[in-house]
Protein backbone atom coordinates (compact mmCIF):
# COMPACT_ATOMS: atom_id res chain seq x y z
CA UNK A 1 0.00 0.00 0.00
CA UNK A 2 1.70 3.18 -1.07
CA UNK A 3 -0.16 5.53 1.27
CA UNK A 4 1.55 4.03 4.35
CA UNK A 5 1.33 6.65 7.05
CA UNK A 6 3.63 6.03 9.99
CA UNK A 7 1.29 6.96 12.82
CA UNK A 8 -1.72 5.27 11.29
CA UNK A 9 -0.21 2.12 9.82
CA UNK A 10 2.81 1.85 12.06
CA UNK A 11 3.52 0.80 15.62
CA UNK A 12 4.50 3.28 18.33
CA UNK A 13 6.82 2.01 21.05
CA UNK A 14 6.79 3.78 24.41
CA UNK A 15 10.09 4.20 26.21
CA UNK A 16 10.25 5.23 29.85
CA UNK A 17 13.76 6.72 29.57
CA UNK A 18 14.67 6.24 33.23
CA UNK A 19 14.23 2.48 32.84
CA UNK A 20 15.36 1.58 29.33
CA UNK A 21 19.14 1.66 29.28
CA UNK A 22 21.70 3.31 31.54
CA UNK A 23 24.85 4.12 29.55
CA UNK A 24 26.98 5.60 32.34
CA UNK A 25 26.19 3.33 35.28
CA UNK A 26 24.50 5.82 37.59
CA UNK A 27 21.45 3.57 37.81
CA UNK A 28 19.23 5.85 35.75
CA UNK A 29 18.39 5.20 32.11
CA UNK A 30 19.47 7.96 29.74
CA UNK A 31 19.27 9.21 26.16
CA UNK A 32 22.63 7.75 25.01
CA UNK A 33 21.36 4.43 26.40
CA UNK A 34 18.35 4.63 24.11
CA UNK A 35 20.50 5.59 21.12
CA UNK A 36 22.65 2.52 21.73
CA UNK A 37 19.57 0.29 21.34
CA UNK A 38 18.06 1.80 18.21
CA UNK A 39 19.14 -1.14 16.06
CA UNK A 40 17.19 -3.43 18.36
CA UNK A 41 14.10 -1.24 17.99
CA UNK A 42 14.44 -0.95 14.23
CA UNK A 43 14.91 -4.73 14.07
CA UNK A 44 11.71 -5.24 16.03
CA UNK A 45 9.93 -3.49 13.17
CA UNK A 46 8.32 -0.62 15.07
CA UNK A 47 7.84 2.74 13.35
CA UNK A 48 8.19 5.31 16.10
CA UNK A 49 9.36 5.78 19.66
CA UNK A 50 7.45 7.83 22.21
CA UNK A 51 9.71 9.07 24.98
CA UNK A 52 8.20 9.69 28.38
CA UNK A 53 9.55 12.98 29.82
CA UNK A 54 13.33 13.48 29.92
CA UNK A 55 13.17 17.19 30.82
CA UNK A 56 14.67 18.67 33.97
CA UNK A 57 12.55 17.56 36.91
CA UNK A 58 12.70 17.48 40.71
CA UNK A 59 11.12 14.01 40.40
CA UNK A 60 8.03 14.59 42.51
CA UNK A 61 6.22 12.60 39.79
CA UNK A 62 9.29 11.12 38.05
CA UNK A 63 9.47 13.47 35.11
CA UNK A 64 5.80 14.41 34.87
CA UNK A 65 6.70 17.47 36.95
CA UNK A 66 8.72 19.49 34.43
CA UNK A 67 10.88 22.39 35.55
CA UNK A 68 12.13 23.32 32.05
CA UNK A 69 10.26 22.19 28.95
CA UNK A 70 13.01 22.89 26.47
CA UNK A 71 16.02 21.21 28.04
CA UNK A 72 17.23 17.75 28.99
CA UNK A 73 17.68 16.74 32.62
CA UNK A 74 21.45 16.23 33.11
CA UNK A 75 20.77 12.72 34.42
CA UNK A 76 19.28 11.84 31.03
CA UNK A 77 21.93 13.64 28.98
CA UNK A 78 22.12 16.87 27.02
CA UNK A 79 20.31 18.53 24.14
CA UNK A 80 23.18 17.32 21.93
CA UNK A 81 22.38 13.75 23.08
CA UNK A 82 18.78 14.35 22.15
CA UNK A 83 19.77 15.62 18.69
CA UNK A 84 21.89 12.54 18.16
CA UNK A 85 19.06 10.26 19.30
CA UNK A 86 16.67 11.98 16.89
CA UNK A 87 19.13 11.88 13.98
CA UNK A 88 20.02 8.22 14.57
CA UNK A 89 16.34 7.33 14.88
CA UNK A 90 15.52 9.09 11.64
CA UNK A 91 18.44 7.41 9.89
CA UNK A 92 16.78 4.09 10.73
CA UNK A 93 13.35 5.26 9.64
CA UNK A 94 12.07 5.64 13.19
CA UNK A 95 9.96 8.67 14.11
CA UNK A 96 10.32 10.40 17.45
CA UNK A 97 7.31 11.37 19.58
CA UNK A 98 7.80 13.46 22.72
CA UNK A 99 5.66 13.58 25.82
CA UNK A 100 4.40 17.12 26.31
CA UNK A 101 3.26 17.85 29.83
CA UNK A 102 1.38 21.12 29.51
CA UNK A 103 -1.46 20.74 31.97
CA UNK A 104 0.88 21.56 34.85
CA UNK A 105 4.52 22.26 35.57
CA UNK A 106 6.77 21.52 38.49
CA UNK A 107 6.45 23.94 41.40
CA UNK A 108 10.19 24.49 40.79
CA UNK A 109 9.60 25.75 37.25
CA UNK A 110 10.77 29.41 37.00
CA UNK A 111 7.28 30.35 35.79
CA UNK A 112 5.72 29.10 39.00
CA UNK A 113 8.44 30.48 41.26
CA UNK A 114 7.77 33.89 39.78
CA UNK A 115 4.01 33.46 39.82
CA UNK A 116 3.87 32.50 43.48
CA UNK A 117 6.24 35.25 44.61
CA UNK A 118 3.63 38.02 44.71
CA UNK A 119 0.21 39.07 43.54
CA UNK A 120 1.55 41.66 41.12
CA UNK A 121 4.39 40.02 39.19
CA UNK A 122 4.17 39.62 35.39
CA UNK A 123 3.37 35.90 35.68
CA UNK A 124 0.84 36.33 38.50
CA UNK A 125 -1.93 34.93 36.35
CA UNK A 126 -0.02 32.04 34.71
CA UNK A 127 -1.32 29.55 37.26
CA UNK A 128 -4.72 29.08 38.84
CA UNK A 129 -4.86 31.30 41.91
CA UNK A 130 -7.97 31.83 44.03
CA UNK A 131 -8.80 33.53 47.28
CA UNK A 132 -10.24 31.37 50.05
CA UNK A 133 -13.95 30.85 49.83
CA UNK A 134 -16.32 31.93 52.55
CA UNK A 135 -18.06 28.58 52.75
CA UNK A 136 -17.72 27.07 56.25
CA UNK A 137 -18.32 23.65 54.70
CA UNK A 138 -15.21 23.89 52.48
CA UNK A 139 -13.17 25.21 55.37
CA UNK A 140 -14.00 22.20 57.42
CA UNK A 141 -13.38 19.74 54.62
CA UNK A 142 -10.59 21.01 52.44
CA UNK A 143 -9.19 24.24 53.78
CA UNK A 144 -5.72 24.34 55.26
CA UNK A 145 -5.60 24.97 58.98
CA UNK A 146 -5.79 28.66 59.74
CA UNK A 147 -5.96 29.64 56.05
CA UNK A 148 -9.60 29.99 55.26
CA UNK A 149 -11.68 27.63 53.19
CA UNK A 150 -10.61 26.02 49.95
CA UNK A 151 -12.05 27.84 46.91
CA UNK A 152 -14.28 24.86 46.00
CA UNK A 153 -14.54 21.08 46.41
CA UNK A 154 -12.10 20.02 43.68
CA UNK A 155 -9.91 17.06 44.56
CA UNK A 156 -6.44 15.93 43.55
CA UNK A 157 -6.10 12.73 41.54
CA UNK A 158 -3.25 11.73 43.82
CA UNK A 159 -5.23 12.25 47.02
CA UNK A 160 -6.53 15.10 49.16
CA UNK A 161 -7.92 18.48 48.15
CA UNK A 162 -6.65 20.11 44.97
CA UNK A 163 -5.95 23.53 46.51
CA UNK A 164 -2.69 24.42 48.21
CA UNK A 165 -2.10 27.56 50.21
CA UNK A 166 0.80 29.85 49.25
CA UNK A 167 1.70 32.19 52.09
CA UNK A 168 3.55 34.59 49.75
CA UNK A 169 0.30 35.49 48.03
CA UNK A 170 -2.21 34.66 50.73
CA UNK A 171 -4.08 32.61 48.14
CA UNK A 172 -4.65 29.05 47.07
CA UNK A 173 -3.33 27.53 43.86
CA UNK A 174 -4.87 24.58 42.11
CA UNK A 175 -3.12 21.26 41.43
CA UNK A 176 -4.96 18.40 39.80
CA UNK A 177 -2.06 16.04 40.63
CA UNK A 178 0.55 16.62 43.36
CA UNK A 179 0.92 19.95 45.13
CA UNK A 180 4.34 19.99 43.41
CA UNK A 181 2.49 20.05 40.07
CA UNK A 182 0.54 23.34 39.89
CA UNK A 183 -1.85 23.59 36.93
CA UNK A 184 -1.10 26.21 34.31
CA UNK A 185 -3.77 28.80 33.57
CA UNK A 186 -4.42 28.25 29.86
CA UNK A 187 -6.81 31.20 29.88
CA UNK A 188 -3.88 33.59 30.22
CA UNK A 189 -2.78 34.57 26.68
CA UNK A 190 0.92 34.82 27.56
CA UNK A 191 0.98 31.47 29.32
CA UNK A 192 -0.89 29.97 26.39
CA UNK A 193 1.66 31.32 23.94
CA UNK A 194 4.59 30.16 26.08
CA UNK A 195 3.13 26.65 26.19
CA UNK A 196 2.55 26.50 22.44
CA UNK A 197 6.10 27.77 21.98
CA UNK A 198 7.27 24.57 23.68
CA UNK A 199 5.66 22.59 20.87
CA UNK A 200 7.22 24.93 18.30
CA UNK A 201 10.65 24.53 19.89
CA UNK A 202 10.64 20.72 19.57
CA UNK A 203 9.11 20.73 16.10
CA UNK A 204 11.87 23.04 14.91
CA UNK A 205 14.31 20.52 16.40
CA UNK A 206 12.87 17.83 14.21
CA UNK A 207 10.51 15.82 16.40
CA UNK A 208 7.69 14.04 14.60
CA UNK A 209 4.93 14.35 17.12
CA UNK A 210 3.66 14.61 20.63
CA UNK A 211 1.81 12.63 23.21
CA UNK A 212 -0.13 15.18 25.24
CA UNK A 213 -0.33 14.44 28.94
CA UNK A 214 -3.93 14.77 30.25
CA UNK A 215 -4.75 17.29 27.53
CA UNK A 216 -8.47 17.42 28.24
CA UNK A 217 -7.82 18.79 31.69
CA UNK A 218 -6.03 21.95 30.43
CA UNK A 219 -9.09 24.15 30.97
CA UNK A 220 -11.14 24.38 34.13
CA UNK A 221 -14.52 25.97 34.61
CA UNK A 222 -14.25 29.77 34.32
CA UNK A 223 -16.54 30.17 37.34
CA UNK A 224 -14.81 27.50 39.45
CA UNK A 225 -18.04 25.73 40.26
CA UNK A 226 -17.86 22.79 42.65
CA UNK A 227 -18.25 19.33 41.14
CA UNK A 228 -21.38 17.35 41.94
CA UNK A 229 -20.70 14.38 44.18
CA UNK A 230 -21.28 10.68 43.59
CA UNK A 231 -20.41 7.36 45.19
CA UNK A 232 -16.74 6.36 45.06
CA UNK A 233 -13.81 5.09 47.08
CA UNK A 234 -11.33 7.97 47.11
CA UNK A 235 -12.18 11.67 47.31
CA UNK A 236 -11.39 12.18 43.63
CA UNK A 237 -13.67 9.30 42.65
CA UNK A 238 -16.52 10.67 44.71
CA UNK A 239 -17.12 13.51 42.25
CA UNK A 240 -18.49 13.88 38.76
CA UNK A 241 -15.78 15.83 37.01
CA UNK A 242 -17.95 18.37 35.26
CA UNK A 243 -15.92 21.46 36.06
CA UNK A 244 -12.26 20.45 36.37
CA UNK A 245 -11.86 18.96 32.90
CA UNK A 246 -13.41 18.70 29.41
CA UNK A 247 -14.24 22.38 29.02
CA UNK A 248 -15.34 23.72 25.61
CA UNK A 249 -12.30 26.03 25.32
CA UNK A 250 -10.20 22.97 24.46
CA UNK A 251 -11.57 22.72 20.94
CA UNK A 252 -10.23 26.03 19.56
CA UNK A 253 -6.92 25.33 21.29
CA UNK A 254 -6.62 21.98 19.53
CA UNK A 255 -7.33 23.71 16.26
CA UNK A 256 -4.48 26.13 16.94
CA UNK A 257 -2.11 23.34 17.93
CA UNK A 258 -3.06 21.37 14.83
CA UNK A 259 -2.17 24.32 12.62
CA UNK A 260 1.27 24.46 14.27
CA UNK A 261 1.79 20.75 13.57
CA UNK A 262 0.44 20.97 10.03
CA UNK A 263 3.08 23.52 9.10
CA UNK A 264 5.37 20.46 8.85
CA UNK A 265 4.67 17.28 6.87
CA UNK A 266 3.35 14.16 8.63
CA UNK A 267 3.49 15.49 12.16
CA UNK A 268 1.25 13.88 14.77
CA UNK A 269 -0.40 14.45 18.12
CA UNK A 270 -2.04 11.83 20.29
CA UNK A 271 -3.84 12.88 23.44
CA UNK A 272 -3.84 11.09 26.74
CA UNK A 273 -7.55 11.30 27.41
CA UNK A 274 -8.54 11.78 30.99
CA UNK A 275 -11.61 9.68 31.84
CA UNK A 276 -11.27 8.13 28.43
CA UNK A 277 -14.18 6.82 26.42
CA UNK A 278 -14.29 6.23 22.68
CA UNK A 279 -17.01 8.90 22.45
CA UNK A 280 -14.75 11.45 24.07
CA UNK A 281 -11.92 10.56 21.72
CA UNK A 282 -14.23 11.16 18.78
CA UNK A 283 -14.95 14.62 20.11
CA UNK A 284 -11.29 15.54 20.42
CA UNK A 285 -9.86 14.04 17.24
CA UNK A 286 -10.31 14.88 13.59
CA UNK A 287 -8.73 16.96 10.85
CA UNK A 288 -8.77 20.22 12.85
CA UNK A 289 -8.21 18.58 16.24
CA UNK A 290 -5.86 15.83 17.39
CA UNK A 291 -4.84 13.03 15.02
CA UNK A 292 -5.75 10.52 17.70
CA UNK A 293 -6.36 10.14 21.41
CA UNK A 294 -6.27 7.16 23.71
CA UNK A 295 -9.62 5.58 24.42
CA UNK A 296 -8.03 2.93 26.68
CA UNK A 297 -10.74 0.47 25.69
CA UNK A 298 -9.10 -2.50 27.36
CA UNK A 299 -7.81 -0.92 30.54
CA UNK A 300 -10.15 1.82 31.64
CA UNK A 301 -12.49 -0.18 33.82
CA UNK A 302 -11.02 1.08 37.04
CA UNK A 303 -8.60 -1.44 38.47
CA UNK A 304 -10.33 -4.35 36.81
CA UNK A 305 -8.83 -5.93 33.71
CA UNK A 306 -11.23 -8.56 32.48
CA UNK A 307 -9.66 -11.30 30.40
CA UNK A 308 -12.38 -12.93 28.48
CA UNK A 309 -13.15 -12.81 24.79
CA UNK A 310 -16.78 -11.75 25.21
CA UNK A 311 -15.84 -8.64 27.18
CA UNK A 312 -13.01 -7.80 24.79
CA UNK A 313 -15.27 -8.19 21.77
CA UNK A 314 -17.80 -5.83 23.35
CA UNK A 315 -15.11 -3.18 23.75
CA UNK A 316 -13.86 -3.72 20.21
CA UNK A 317 -17.34 -3.46 18.72
CA UNK A 318 -18.14 -0.36 20.69
CA UNK A 319 -15.14 1.43 19.24
CA UNK A 320 -15.54 -0.06 15.79
CA UNK A 321 -19.00 1.48 15.58
CA UNK A 322 -17.56 4.92 16.35
CA UNK A 323 -14.15 5.13 14.71
CA UNK A 324 -15.03 5.61 11.07
CA UNK A 325 -13.97 8.14 8.44
CA UNK A 326 -11.32 10.49 9.78
CA UNK A 327 -11.36 8.97 13.27
CA UNK A 328 -8.67 6.41 13.84
CA UNK A 329 -8.42 4.27 17.00
CA UNK A 330 -5.37 3.46 19.12
CA UNK A 331 -4.76 0.18 20.90
CA UNK A 332 -3.08 0.29 24.30
CA UNK A 333 -2.64 -2.66 26.61
CA UNK A 334 0.24 -1.39 28.75
CA UNK A 335 1.88 1.87 29.72
CA UNK A 336 3.77 3.45 32.62
CA UNK A 337 0.61 3.98 34.68
CA UNK A 338 -0.91 0.50 34.90
CA UNK A 339 0.22 -3.05 35.69
CA UNK A 340 1.84 -4.71 32.69
CA UNK A 341 -0.13 -6.90 30.29
CA UNK A 342 1.74 -10.04 31.32
CA UNK A 343 1.20 -9.26 35.00
CA UNK A 344 -2.52 -8.82 34.50
CA UNK A 345 -3.20 -11.82 32.32
CA UNK A 346 -0.64 -14.51 33.08
CA UNK A 347 0.34 -16.71 35.98
CA UNK A 348 3.98 -17.48 36.68
CA UNK A 349 6.30 -17.42 33.71
CA UNK A 350 3.94 -18.88 31.09
CA UNK A 351 3.62 -16.68 28.01
CA UNK A 352 0.59 -18.26 26.37
CA UNK A 353 -1.74 -15.43 27.44
CA UNK A 354 0.89 -12.81 26.72
CA UNK A 355 1.03 -14.07 23.14
CA UNK A 356 -2.72 -13.80 22.78
CA UNK A 357 -2.60 -10.26 24.14
CA UNK A 358 0.23 -9.37 21.75
CA UNK A 359 -1.73 -10.82 18.84
CA UNK A 360 -4.71 -8.71 19.84
CA UNK A 361 -2.59 -5.58 20.07
CA UNK A 362 -1.11 -6.16 16.63
CA UNK A 363 -4.16 -7.37 14.69
CA UNK A 364 -6.89 -4.96 15.77
CA UNK A 365 -7.79 -1.92 13.70
CA UNK A 366 -5.95 0.99 15.27
CA UNK A 367 -2.42 2.14 15.99
CA UNK A 368 -0.73 -0.27 18.42
CA UNK A 369 1.16 1.33 21.30
CA UNK A 370 3.71 -1.09 22.70
CA UNK A 371 5.28 -0.44 26.10
CA UNK A 372 8.98 -1.20 26.51
CA UNK A 373 9.48 -4.80 27.66
CA UNK A 374 6.00 -5.85 26.56
CA UNK A 375 7.64 -7.71 23.67
CA UNK A 376 9.53 -9.97 26.10
CA UNK A 377 6.61 -10.30 28.51
CA UNK A 378 8.17 -8.36 31.37
CA UNK A 379 6.26 -8.68 34.61
CA UNK A 380 5.82 -6.01 37.27
CA UNK A 381 8.33 -6.15 40.08
CA UNK A 382 6.84 -6.86 43.50
CA UNK A 383 7.76 -4.11 45.96
CA UNK A 384 7.79 -3.77 49.69
CA UNK A 385 6.29 -0.64 51.16
CA UNK A 386 9.74 0.75 51.94
CA UNK A 387 10.74 0.42 48.28
CA UNK A 388 7.80 2.37 46.84
CA UNK A 389 8.84 5.54 45.00
CA UNK A 390 5.60 6.56 43.35
CA UNK A 391 3.72 9.21 45.41
CA UNK A 392 0.18 7.78 45.01
CA UNK A 393 1.60 4.38 45.97
CA UNK A 394 3.02 5.84 49.16
CA UNK A 395 -0.22 7.55 49.94
CA UNK A 396 -2.68 4.76 49.22
CA UNK A 397 -0.69 1.66 50.20
CA UNK A 398 -1.84 -1.10 50.58
CA UNK A 399 -5.11 -0.27 48.76
CA UNK A 400 -3.09 0.91 45.78
CA UNK A 401 0.62 0.24 45.47
CA UNK A 402 1.45 2.85 42.86
CA UNK A 403 3.06 2.50 39.46
CA UNK A 404 6.65 1.50 40.19
CA UNK A 405 5.91 -2.13 39.42
CA UNK A 406 5.61 -1.56 35.68
CA UNK A 407 8.61 0.78 35.49
CA UNK A 408 11.43 -1.62 36.33
CA UNK A 409 14.65 -1.73 34.29
CA UNK A 410 14.49 -3.24 30.80
CA UNK A 411 15.85 -6.80 30.78
CA UNK A 412 18.46 -7.02 28.03
CA UNK A 413 20.54 -10.02 29.09
CA UNK A 414 21.53 -12.18 32.06
CA UNK A 415 24.46 -10.11 33.28
CA UNK A 416 24.13 -8.33 36.65
CA UNK A 417 21.52 -5.53 36.35
CA UNK A 418 20.13 -7.36 33.30
CA UNK A 419 22.29 -5.32 30.96
CA UNK A 420 20.33 -2.20 31.93
CA UNK A 421 23.31 -0.71 33.75
CA UNK A 422 26.85 -1.77 32.89
CA UNK A 423 27.66 -4.82 35.05
CA UNK A 424 30.46 -2.97 36.83
CA UNK A 425 28.23 -0.01 37.64
CA UNK A 426 28.65 1.61 41.03
CA UNK A 427 25.06 2.55 41.61
CA UNK A 428 22.17 0.12 41.59
CA UNK A 429 19.35 0.70 39.12
CA UNK A 430 16.82 3.22 40.47
CA UNK A 431 14.24 0.43 40.78
CA UNK A 432 15.10 -3.24 41.30
CA UNK A 433 15.48 -5.48 38.27
CA UNK A 434 12.87 -8.27 38.18
CA UNK A 435 14.24 -11.49 39.65
CA UNK A 436 13.24 -13.40 36.51
CA UNK A 437 15.81 -11.49 34.40
CA UNK A 438 18.23 -14.41 34.05
CA UNK A 439 15.67 -16.31 31.99
CA UNK A 440 13.51 -13.47 30.75
CA UNK A 441 15.62 -11.11 28.69
CA UNK A 442 16.14 -9.99 25.10
CA UNK A 443 19.29 -12.03 24.51
CA UNK A 444 17.68 -15.29 25.66
CA UNK A 445 14.50 -14.68 23.70
CA UNK A 446 16.48 -13.88 20.56
CA UNK A 447 17.78 -17.45 20.63
CA UNK A 448 14.43 -19.11 21.23
CA UNK A 449 12.30 -19.45 18.07
CA UNK A 450 9.13 -19.81 20.18
CA UNK A 451 9.76 -16.82 22.42
CA UNK A 452 7.30 -13.99 22.80
CA UNK A 453 9.92 -11.70 21.26
CA UNK A 454 10.19 -13.73 18.05
CA UNK A 455 6.43 -14.14 17.98
CA UNK A 456 6.10 -10.35 18.23
CA UNK A 457 8.61 -9.82 15.42
CA UNK A 458 6.67 -12.22 13.19
CA UNK A 459 3.39 -10.47 13.85
CA UNK A 460 4.87 -7.05 13.22
CA UNK A 461 6.29 -8.26 9.92
CA UNK A 462 2.89 -9.66 8.93
CA UNK A 463 1.20 -6.42 9.82
CA UNK A 464 3.67 -4.63 7.54
CA UNK A 465 3.18 -7.09 4.70
CA UNK A 466 -0.63 -7.39 4.79
CA UNK A 467 -2.54 -4.15 4.40
CA UNK A 468 -5.70 -5.93 5.58
CA UNK A 469 -4.13 -6.22 9.04
CA UNK A 470 -3.56 -2.48 9.15
CA UNK A 471 -6.48 -0.93 7.36
CA UNK A 472 -8.97 -3.75 6.89
CA UNK A 473 -12.45 -3.70 8.31
CA UNK A 474 -12.97 -5.69 11.52
CA UNK A 475 -15.54 -8.48 11.04
CA UNK A 476 -16.21 -10.72 14.06
CA UNK A 477 -16.95 -14.38 13.34
CA UNK A 478 -18.03 -15.35 16.83
CA UNK A 479 -21.05 -13.45 18.10
CA UNK A 480 -20.82 -14.42 21.79
CA UNK A 481 -17.37 -15.88 22.21
CA UNK A 482 -16.78 -18.14 25.17
CA UNK A 483 -13.34 -19.59 24.50
CA UNK A 484 -12.01 -18.06 21.32
CA UNK A 485 -12.14 -14.78 19.52
CA UNK A 486 -12.21 -15.20 15.74
CA UNK A 487 -12.38 -12.28 13.32
CA UNK A 488 -11.54 -11.16 9.85
CA UNK A 489 -9.58 -8.12 8.83
CA UNK A 490 -10.76 -7.35 5.37
CA UNK A 491 -10.06 -4.93 2.53
CA UNK A 492 -11.59 -5.22 -0.92
CA UNK A 493 -8.51 -7.15 -2.08
CA UNK A 494 -7.49 -9.13 0.94
CA UNK A 495 -8.88 -11.05 3.90
CA UNK A 496 -6.92 -12.17 6.93
CA UNK A 497 -8.54 -14.42 9.52
CA UNK A 498 -7.36 -14.09 13.11
CA UNK A 499 -8.20 -16.79 15.65
CA UNK A 500 -7.24 -16.53 19.32
CA UNK A 501 -8.03 -19.36 21.68
CA UNK A 502 -8.17 -17.92 25.19
CA UNK A 503 -8.84 -21.26 26.81
CA UNK A 504 -6.49 -24.07 27.78
CA UNK A 505 -8.64 -26.60 25.92
CA UNK A 506 -8.89 -27.54 22.28
CA UNK A 507 -12.00 -25.87 20.88
CA UNK A 508 -14.12 -26.09 17.76
CA UNK A 509 -15.56 -22.78 16.72
CA UNK A 510 -18.48 -22.99 14.28
CA UNK A 511 -17.70 -21.08 11.07
CA UNK A 512 -20.07 -19.91 8.33
CA UNK A 513 -19.76 -21.50 4.85
CA UNK A 514 -18.34 -18.25 3.40
CA UNK A 515 -15.33 -18.89 5.60
CA UNK A 516 -15.02 -22.67 5.40
CA UNK A 517 -15.41 -22.72 1.61
CA UNK A 518 -12.42 -20.42 1.12
CA UNK A 519 -8.93 -21.70 0.54
CA UNK A 520 -6.82 -20.28 3.29
CA UNK A 521 -3.08 -20.08 3.47
CA UNK A 522 -1.52 -20.14 6.97
CA UNK A 523 0.42 -17.04 7.97
CA UNK A 524 1.09 -17.84 11.58
CA UNK A 525 0.43 -20.81 13.79
CA UNK A 526 1.51 -20.76 17.42
CA UNK A 527 1.97 -23.17 19.04
CA UNK A 528 2.71 -24.83 15.70
CA UNK A 529 0.35 -27.69 14.77
CA UNK A 530 0.98 -28.12 11.06
CA UNK A 531 -2.54 -29.57 10.77
CA UNK A 532 -5.38 -28.30 8.62
CA UNK A 533 -7.80 -27.06 11.20
CA UNK A 534 -10.72 -25.94 9.10
CA UNK A 535 -13.52 -28.43 8.46
CA UNK A 536 -16.72 -27.79 6.51
CA UNK A 537 -18.37 -26.29 9.53
CA UNK A 538 -15.83 -25.35 12.14
CA UNK A 539 -12.37 -24.12 12.95
CA UNK A 540 -10.37 -26.21 15.37
CA UNK A 541 -7.91 -24.58 17.70
CA UNK A 542 -5.44 -26.16 20.08
CA UNK A 543 -5.09 -24.78 23.64
CA UNK A 544 -4.08 -21.09 23.63
CA UNK A 545 -3.55 -21.17 19.92
CA UNK A 546 -3.01 -18.03 17.85
CA UNK A 547 -3.66 -18.61 14.20
CA UNK A 548 -3.60 -16.23 11.24
CA UNK A 549 -4.79 -17.29 7.78
CA UNK A 550 -5.02 -15.38 4.52
CA UNK A 551 -7.06 -15.90 1.38
CA UNK A 552 -4.57 -16.94 -1.31
CA UNK A 553 -5.88 -14.47 -3.92
CA UNK A 554 -4.11 -11.72 -2.01
C1 LIG B 1 -0.59 11.20 33.22
C2 LIG B 1 0.71 10.47 33.18
O1 LIG B 1 0.60 9.38 32.32
C3 LIG B 1 1.05 10.08 34.60
O2 LIG B 1 2.17 9.25 34.64
C4 LIG B 1 1.27 11.34 35.39
O3 LIG B 1 1.49 11.01 36.74
C5 LIG B 1 0.07 12.28 35.28
N1 LIG B 1 -0.41 12.42 33.95
C6 LIG B 1 0.43 13.65 35.76
O4 LIG B 1 1.30 14.24 34.82
CA1 LIG C 1 22.58 6.88 33.37
Give a structural overview.
It is a single chain. By secondary structure, the protein is of the alpha/beta class. The chain is built from 17 helices and 18 strands. It has helices at residues 6-9, 31-36, 38-44, 79-91, 110-117, 136-142, 189-204, 250-262, 278-284, 309-322, 341-345, 352-363, 391-396, 442-447, 452-465, 467-471, 513-516; strands spanning 12-15, 48-51, 95-100, 129-130, 163-166, 171-174, 209-212, 268-271, 292-293, 330-332, 367-371, 473-476, 484-490, 495-501, 507-510, 521-526, 538-541, 546-550. An 8-stranded parallel β-sheet has the order 9-8-7-3-2-1-11-10. A 5-stranded antiparallel β-sheet has the order 12-13-14-18-16. Strands 4-6-5 form a 3-stranded antiparallel β-sheet, with no helix packed on it. The longest helix is centred in the middle third of the chain and has 16 residues, at 189-204. The radius of gyration is 24 Å and the shape is globular. The mean pLDDT is 95. Bound molecules: 1-deoxynojirimycin and calcium ion (CA). Calcium ion binds at residues 22-24, 26, 28, 30.
Amino acid sequence: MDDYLWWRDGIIYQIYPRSFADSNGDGIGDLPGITAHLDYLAGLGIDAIWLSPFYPTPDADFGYDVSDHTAVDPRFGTLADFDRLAAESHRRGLRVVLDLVLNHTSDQHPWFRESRASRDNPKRDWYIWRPPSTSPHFRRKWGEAGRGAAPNNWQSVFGGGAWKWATERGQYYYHMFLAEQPDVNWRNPEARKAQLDVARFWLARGVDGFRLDVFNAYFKDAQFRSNPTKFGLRGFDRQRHLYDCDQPEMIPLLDELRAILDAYPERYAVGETFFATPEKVLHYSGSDRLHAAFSFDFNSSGLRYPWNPAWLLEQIQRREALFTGEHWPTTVLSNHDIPRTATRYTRGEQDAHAKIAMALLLTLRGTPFMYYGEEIGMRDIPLRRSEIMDPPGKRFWPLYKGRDGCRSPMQWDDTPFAGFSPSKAQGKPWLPVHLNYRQRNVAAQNEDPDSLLNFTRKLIALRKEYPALRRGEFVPLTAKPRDALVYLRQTSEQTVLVALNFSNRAVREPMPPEVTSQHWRPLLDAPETGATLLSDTYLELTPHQVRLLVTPES
